[in-house]
Amino acid sequence: VQLVESGGGLVQPGGSLRLSCAASGFTFSNYNMNWHRQAPGKERALVADISRSGTTYYVDSVKGRFTISRDNPKNTVTLQINSLKPEDTAVYYCSVAISGRWYWGQGTQVTVSS
C-alpha cells in the first residue's frame, strides 16, 4: 500500500488549497478513504471520510469549508480546503484502513498565516 499526498503549502487566512492523494497497492474502489490532520502538539484526528460509493463525512469544524472527493479510475482522493483559518494549520494525511490496519501517507504541510 502506498499513499502519496501533495498540494500543501503556505496560504493566508481565507485562502484555499487542494490536497491530492495518489493511492496504489490495493483495490482503491473497495475502500473508504480518509483525510486526517495533526496540528502541532495535538493528536492526529479525522477530518473527512468518503465511502466506496461516494458518501461523505466531515467533522463539524470543517463542514461547509472542506470537500472530499474521489476518482476511482485514477486511484486518487482529493481534499478541497476553502476559507482556511489559522487553526487549520497541520500536517494532512491521506489514509485507508485495510483488514483492521491503518495505512498512512507521508503527509503534506498546510500552514495558514498572514
How would you sum up this structure in a few lines?
Helices cover about 0% and strands about 55% of the residues. The protein is mainly beta and about 110 residues long.
Account of the protein in words:
This protein is an all-beta fold and 114 residues long. The protein has strands spanning 2-6, 9-11, 17-24, 33-38, 45-50, 56-58, 66-71, 76-81, 90-98, 101-104, 108-112. Strands 2, 4, 5, 6, 9, 10 and 11 form a 7-stranded mixed beta sheet that branches.
What labels would you give this structure?
0% helix; mainly beta
Q: Report on the biggest sheet.
A: 7 strands, mixed
Number of helices in the DSSP assignment: 0
Question: In which range does the helix fraction lie?
Answer: under 10%
Structural classification: mainly beta
Radius of gyration (Å): 13 Å
Low-confidence stretches: none
Q: Name the average pLDDT.
A: 97
Shape call: globular
**Beta strands, count:** 11
Q: Could you give the order of the helices and strands?
A: EEEEEEEEEEE
Q: N- to C-terminal separation?
A: 37 Å
Beta-strand portion reads: over 45%
